[in-house]
Amino acid sequence: MLDIALRKQHGNFQLDLAFQSDGAKVTALFGRSGSGKTSVINMVAGLVRPDQGRVAVDGRVLFDGEKGIDLPPPRRRVGYVFQEGRLFPHYTVRGNLTYGMERTPASERFIQFDQVIDVLGIGALLDRRPSRLSGGEKQRVAIGRALLSSPRLLLMDEPLAALDGARKDELLPFIALLPGQFGVPILYVSHAVDEVLRLADHLLLMNDGKLEDSGTVEDVMGRSGFAEVSGRRDPASIVTAMVTQHDRLHGTTHLSFPGGVIRVPLLSAPAGRKLRVRIDAGDVMLSLTRPTGLSVQNIFPARVVSLRHESGLVDVGLDLGCMLHAQISEQAYADLGLNIGLPLYALVKTAAISRSDIAEHEPAKDEHPTLAEEEI
Ligand SMILES: Nc1ncnc2c1ncn2[C@@H]1O[C@H](COP(=O)(O)OP(=O)(O)OP(=O)(O)O)[C@@H](O)[C@H]1O
User: Fold this and answer.
1) What atom in ligand 1 is closest to the CA of residue 40?
2) For atom 5 of ligand 1, which residue has the closest CA?
């Protein structure tokens, strides 16, 4: 349980927010550059002192402005992974890894060296210096070093931002494994939608030093504040789905979800894999009758459950076993005669769902991420 309230004046910039995150494995702090994300985690880590506030992790108070509690960083039991590894260049990988471990009293160590090496796949790197590691390897070692201090909370500040797309895809599954394997919750700073989709349970949306929204990934990504901050056209729905089959002939993968079967562009994830799919509200069309003679493959019976008028558009909430949002014009709303409870059909074009809108959410228990040979 994270219980955080922070106030800080940085020149003209004022940070003022409070949140709690109970039971989440990964809490994502999402916002534009300069919204104050790094400042928040620096204050949780004890690297920056808030003007006022309180920071508690599982009931253990790390900072309380009123009570004069301000634990120094090493006593906070918080691990920190920075954007670019920040490994000690004069230590080998082994030296970097044991650094944090040796500073944690033996009675408080609950994460084992061998387990970290194994989960992060860094056994072959132990005798190398950081200068002989690729970007992805450096980050895995940095994660290992943070974990080996047996932290009660892991802070990650855009840990993938310095990596190219391929390395990023490779590291994401490792990060997804961490809370389950080590039982350490993560506060994860990002401004990448795909990372949040993949990793987070709880989402905090920051804007100009304030918390603009907070809740489950499904809820927050479905609201207009997130669309605005992430530069997306419309709000979106996040549906949870499972891979059922690949239709290579037609280049599609079939996913089962509460609304039926949705076809998306061909994926490599195996059958049975659980995914999150992001569907932009503007990509959902509505029809009062089941359409025929259309190219659209994804047609779902639905019922209107909410109508929200905003800036000349109507957000139509649909129940099709799960929630799906459609965004239509006032004209279309009037022409269709929409009202609450009306049965209709929701249509989603397969091609409108891009691969970056689909993320594995829970890694399969019996699988371990695989690594390609990395070029330095
Ligand atoms: N020590 C400081 N002194 C003055 N201003 C600061 C200080 N640290 C941060 N700021 C200001 O606070 C604001 C928030 O910065 P912060 O780094 O927390 O944002 P961010 O959301 O993490 O951005 P980015 O994604 O670019 O890292 C910025 O306007 C920044 O210039």
Assistant:
1) 18
2) 10
Average pLDDT on 5-9 reads: 96
Distance 205 CA to ligand 1 centre (A): 16
**CATH 3.40.50.300 domain extents, the chain:** 2-229
Say how many Å lie between the CA of residue 75 and the centre of ligand 1.
25
Q: Which residues line ligand 1 (CB under 6 A)?
A: 10-11, 13, 31, 33-39
Q: Per-residue pLDDT tens for 314-337?
A: 999 999 999 999 999 999 999 999
85-137: pLDDT as tens digits? 789 999 999 999 998 788 888 888 899 999 999 888 999 999 999 999 988 89
Q: 2-229: which CATH number, 3.40.50.300, 3.40.605.10, 3.10.20.30, 3.60.60.10?
A: 3.40.50.300
Do 277 and 322 form a contact (C-beta atoms < 8 A)?
no
pLDDT tens digit sequence for 331-371: 999 999 999 999 999 999 999 998 888 998 875 455 556 55
Looking at the CA of residue 39, tell me the nearest atom of ligand 1: 18
Closest to 313 in 3D by CA, of 228, 226, 224, 239 = 224
Q: Which ipTM did the prediction report?
A: 0.92
Alpha carbon distances (Å) from 285 to 200, 241, 347: 28, 20, 5
What single DSSP character describes residue 128? -
Atom of ligand 1 nearest to the CA of 48: 1
Instruction: Name the β-bridge partners of 14.
Output: 9
Overall CATH class of domain 236-360: mainly beta
Q: State the burial class of residue 269 (Cβ atoms within 10 Å of its Cβ: 0-12, 13-18, 19+).
A: middle
Q: How far is the CA of 37 from the centre of ligand 1 (A)?
A: 8
- Identify which of 282, 291, 288 has the alpha carbon closest to the alpha carbon of residue 304: 288
What is the share, in percent, of the chain residues with pLDDT greater than 70?
96
Query: β-pairing, 274-280 with 2-10?
Result: unpaired
Q: Which pLDDT does position 370 carry in this prediction? A: 57
* Closest protein CA for atom 31 of ligand 1: 34
| Ligand 1 atom at minimal distance to the Cα of residue 38 | 22
Q: Which atom of ligand 1 is nearest to the CA of 209?
A: 14
Its pTM stands at: 0.87
User: Which residue out of 39, 189, 196 has the highest number of ligand 1 atoms within 8 Å of its CB and is therefore the one to mutate?
Assistant: 39
